[in-house]
Specification:
two-stranded antiparallel sheet, about 35% helix, about 210 residues, disordered C terminus, two-stranded parallel ribbon, 7 helices, 3 domains, Arc Repressor Mutant, subunit A, alpha+beta
Length: about 210
């Protein structure tokens, strides 16, 4: 008795793989959910991802899921720009105190990765147990997103890190981020040598 392969069953597993892929932690997991055995799931997933139609369907599913969650190209670039062009002075009032979080604009709040609040209570004893002075001090520590990395990402989006094409006879202005090292003389840095006009931005992480 000979066994024949069921094309319909194979198509159904492929469709389930596409459906489960966006919510799975790996392609292998998606293949197992689709009905492939745990032993063959890795190989099956690798094979499926090499099929153009499957890859295109997964990309379309990922895009649809992102749009349903409000994740768009424009919004993503806007958030990147908020960090890349952030200014710490916007977080402080005229007296140098940290602004209340509810008073920050969307642009100002986007640069904040976290806020630590520490309350310090100091008591100065008086003549008896019921007298004395209690002083409460609140200390806020603001941790900002890495501005240098955001700038690097923005440079990549704009294509400003690409070199010139000698064959085309064109020159392109290249921008690179060079970590600052005060112990290394600027004139000796080999990474400043370039065959095209280059703007080098020196800076440290805000971490």
């Amino acid at each position: 008795m000979s066994s024949t392969r069921n094309p319909r069953a194979s198509d159904q597993r492929r469709e389930r793989f596409i459906r489960y892929f966006p919510g799975s932690s790996s392609a292998t997991e998606a293949a197992i959910k689709a009905g492939y055995s745990a032993k063959s799931a890795h190989v099956a997933a690798s094979r499926l991802l090499k099929i153009d139609k499957v890859r295109a369907a997964i990309d379309a599913a990922n895009l649809a899921a992102a749009q349903a969650c409000g994740i768009t190209r424009e919004r993503t670039l806007q958030e990147l720009g908020r960090v890349a062009y952030s200014d710490v002075r916007a977080l402080l009032d005229a007296d140098g105190n940290v602004k209340p979080i509810h008073a920050l604009s969307l642009d100002e709040a986007a640069q904040i990765a976290g806020i630590e609040v520490e309350t310090v209570v100091e008591r100065e004893e008086g003549d008896d147990e019921t007298s004395g002075t209690v002083t409460t001090t609140t200390v806020k520590k603001i941790r900002r997103w890495d501005k240098v990395r955001a700038l690097q990402a923005a440079i990549g989006v704009l294509g400003l890190n690409k070199q010139a094409d000698p064959a085309a006879g064109t020159a392109r202005l290249a921008i690179t981020i060079v970590p600052w090292d005060k112990n290394r003389p600027l004139a000796r840095r080999s990474d400043l040598q370039a065959s095209v006009p280059t703007v080098h931005v020196f800076g440290e992480d805000d971490r």
